[in-house]
Design a protein that fits this description.
alpha+beta, about 180 residues, elongated, about 45% helix, five-stranded antiparallel sheet
Length: about 180
């Protein structure tokens, strides 16, 4: 049996505690950097597209997710925390988004979409919808969605490319890849 002096005994727990605090600090800084990138990207997209709302729908389980970030032109359009129409998003749609699908709906009332999807979009005041996937090496991380709530809107090729660049910015960020 080895007997440690009092100072040696105290050093080991403090060393482990310090390592734990360093890991915690690193995770917090990484999360703050990730969150700031998401906010900046979404604000730039909303302002460039001149629309009512841009949201990040993050998948926390396979095809289950929620709106974790939003950029709004008015608080009345907030849907932060919304879990969406989970019964509408299934393997079929996930497979399409995994291959890079872009959904550009100019008018939800005229587009041939599933009734549950149309009802959901109505419930969150969407009149026009543009959705691009955020794909990371391990799969579909989330969806970046632009919502125009006050009127229908045609999405241009430039609008779609801008959203795709925003999604690509997020998909290649080291803080997102590690999250």
């Amino acid at each position: 049996m080895q007997i440690h002096s009092h100072s040696e005994f105290e050093y080991l727990p403090n060393h482990h505690r310090e390592q734990g605090l360093q890991r915690l600090l690193k995770r917090l800084v990484s999360k703050m950097q990730r969150d700031e990138l998401v906010r900046q990207t979404m604000n730039q997209l909303r302002e460039s597209l001149q629309i009512d709302r841009v949201v990040l729908y993050y998948f926390y389980e396979q095809w289950l997710g929620q709106v974790t970030f939003e950029s709004l032109n008015s608080e009345e359009f907030s849907i932060l925390g919304s879990t969406g129409a989970d019964d509408c998003f299934n393997d079929k749609y996930a497979a399409l988004y995994l291959t890079g699908r872009v959904s550009a709906i100019a008018n939800i009332e005229l587009e041939p979409i599933e009734t549950c999807h149309r009802d959901f979009l109505r419930s969150i005041q969407v009149r026009a919808n543009l959705v691009v996937p955020i794909i990371i090496p391990r799969g579909l991380w989330g969806l970046l969605a632009a919502h125009h709530c006050q009127a229908p809107r045609s999405w241009s090729k430039a609008d779609i490319e801008l959203m795709q660049r925003g999604a690509q910015t997020l998909a290649t960020d080291s803080n997102i890849l590690e999250s």
